[in-house]
Fold this protein.
Amino acid sequence: MHHARSYIAGQWYARPGLSTAAVLNPADGTVVGQVELIDAAGLDAALTSAAEGFALWRRKTGYERAALMREAVAILRSRKDAIAQLMTLEQGKPLAEAAGEVASSCDNIEWMAEEATRAYGRLLVPRNAGVSQVVRREPIGPVAAFCPWNFPALTPARKIAGALAAGCSLILKPAEETPLTAIEVVRAFIDAGLPAHVLNLVYGKPREVSEHLIGSDVVRKVSFTGSTAVGKQLLELAARGVKRATMELGGHAPVVVFDDVDPVQAAQQAVVAKFRNAGQVCTSPTRFYVQQGIYAPFVEAFAAATRALRVGDGRQAGMQMGPLANIRRVEAMEALVADTAASGARLLCGGTRKPGPGFFFPPTVFADVPDSARVMNEEPFGPLVPIAPFATTDEVVQRANRLPYGLAAYAMTRSLSRAAAMSEALEAGMVCINHFTVSTPASPFGGTKESGYGSEGGVEGLDAYLVTKSVTQRSAGADLEP
């Protein structure tokens, strides 16, 4: 049994009478731990700590911050396998994916550590003799960061890295369903020597925590990854205090497959990307539009590759897809499958939950799905794939862009002119042509429309935690203006 607690002001927060929540293994539904839920006094302590931490950390040079962040990365890499085991235990993804997530987290922190030394301002050309003009980039202040359960290492790592590199302190609020992995990420920074108060970790009832933290004058920046519905609520809270916010919200990524590609290769490549983390990925390729000339062979190859996937407990060797993270996702899949079947679509594989323990749902593929079906309009966030044919480029662009989401989009074609046209036409913050890796540590991660605004990663990810200050100074010996 694992025990998770909040971490405040350099100490693990322990207080009699705190309520707890169970941590479940989604592969069998058993309780593998518990997490203590913080009270109002603990949140107040976290806010006080963050204010003290900001006053300390902002005075560190970029090189000092970078050195400590690199030390945390070294610690994380040395613990990669152990953290991956914890991640699979509480979240369900296969061990190979979990280890890859820890490695990606390290890469993102390391890249942002280097950016800490490049938070450049600029020197302006003076308009008057004896007057200098400088633009400074300074940390915005204490940050409240909220993370979901689907990437319990990578999402906290991105938010911690951006805030610390800029010189901000942080109150991190991960998901209570996957608390164990986030603790290990935070522990790496503690063991690297991060001063007390700079990084605080809280677990609690989401609404109570968000209202308490965002409503405080201490917090000057909000970073949230999660659903569009919750993001809108947090934006309302942030607007009351005119607090800057980065919102990485839901998506419903279209995949446009043109008839000049090999349908079998394209389908096999897409299957690997789609069922990563059981489809519980905000950038997951979701709505497949396939040009009529290759529609039949693509659908056949996609279904065949899906049936061949090995699904089971992520801790077992060779598993390619684990369980869903919780029973809510299973129930959501069942509802969407029923609606899609009722729409007249053809079920090619999956569709029915097998009896047994755990939150498993089979990889499911439908063909000939009309745009009116719920799955073509609501993010499934699970192992459910709708495929539909299209005829012309103009038609598919309109269908791909018709939803209020704009996080990721994909296109597959051998034509350079068509690739260029689609990269411009698709309304998304991240567009991939002929592959499915939407981001790297050096690239911005974020969306448009109701998929949010602001970015994590890249120089944009550092900029999100900085404010701009213009300084104009007259030299001491210059004549004073009348």
